[in-house]
TrEMBL record:
Entry keyword set: Membrane, Transmembrane, Transmembrane helix
Name assigned to this protein: Phage holin family protein
Transmembrane segments: 7-24, 54-75, 95-118
Coiled-coil annotated spans: none
Keyword Nucleotide-binding part of the UniProt annotation: no
């Protein structure tokens, strides 16, 4: 049940990023962000903790800014995987679009999770 809550929260956050960031475009209508949110939720549960542990010294040196780069790279990875595996997803034009999209997804996810209790 926790995974479904995280998937729903990530889906809403991904919709917000698609609508707010000029360099992120949905491919496949609303199914694109849904598929990308599924892949992103799976990546956040499996790969992200390992990358954060490996990048901890660099994150300490940059006062946590390295986590934003990790989030942007994972968003790029989830976009690519959703296209490759599922055939739909979101298209990200540049790294800076992914960087801004990752910030928006993180902020919206945190706010929705705090309000609803989903995704935690």
């Amino acid at each position: 049940m926790a995974f479904l809550g995280e998937w729903l929260v990530t889906f809403v956050a991904t919709i917000c990023a698609v609508n707010l960031v000029p360099g992120i475009v949905s491919v496949g209508g609303w199914v694109g962000p849904l598929a990308c949110a599924l892949v992103l939720s799976l990546i956040n549960m499996s790969i992200k903790p390992i990358l954060q542990a490996i990048g901890l010294p660099l994150s300490v040196l940059t006062l946590g800014l390295f986590y934003l780069i990790v989030n942007a790279l994972l968003l790029e990875l989830s976009s690519w995987l959703s296209f490759t595996v599922l055939g739909v997803g979101i298209f990200i034009q540049s790294f800076w679009s992914a960087f801004l999209g990752a910030i928006i997804i993180s902020l919206v996810s945190t706010i929705i999770s705090a309000i609803t209790g989903l995704g935690k």
